[in-house]
Amino acid sequence: MRTNDEAARVVGIVSQALELAGQTLVVIGGSSGIGFETARRAREEGANLIVTARDADRVHRAGLELGASIAAFDASDFDRLERFFDELPAPVDHVLVSGPGPRYAPHRDFDVGAARRTVETQLLLPLEVARNAWSKIRPGGTLLFTGCADDHRPAAGLSLVSGLNAALPALTKTLAREIAPVRVNLIVPGFVDTPLSAAILDDRLNGRREQLRTMLPIRRVVGAADVAALAVHLMTNTAVTGATFEIDGGQQLVRA
Fold first, then answer.
1. Which of 17, 107, 142, 245 is the most buried (most CB within 10 A)?
2. Domain locations in the chain?
3. What is the residue-averaged pLDDT of the chain?
């Protein structure tokens, strides 16, 4: 049998192996998809979790599965978002904003009201999270945003998406200077096989998967776990800030 000292050394070795042991991650939009998988990966690395989402039932299920504290509210309600950060009981180490997917619309179908809501969730939400979270994040901690990749070629329906895609990296760089030593980074996925993708594509999902398996240099579809692995790396690599990371399986290298 191990002595108490030997047992303590074993516990210490295990703790050292967990990259986020004793740290706290807040996930805004963590009941499914990339947010949920990042929370799961961080939990496996020893993190304590606080997960929020709009749907009370879904975030409740996520909290039970992940062993996380939860809060159910719409993050685009900026007054409620501010109260959430004001009410955090202690400083946190990392905040991930996992926003909704892009909205594509040809110019002829452009809806100003819908566009304003997209700007709120894709651009103003990151700004509001930064404004409310920076004083709650420990020095050297991380604020992580997610965006959406395009292939940098003009196409019908991409006017709003392209504008926001150009804005987010600039916002990330500026915030990285402004709220340092909190580190700010942006993850820009291409197609990711998530429930949101399934809802958008519906009966076209399997065809899209097969197309990507054939076309992408990695010969497989990018999953939420791939993005989660990158997110956790950015939490633990304290030399990275102000950067944008595209994770698309090489989609931009080929026509898709």
1. 142
2. 19-250
3. 86
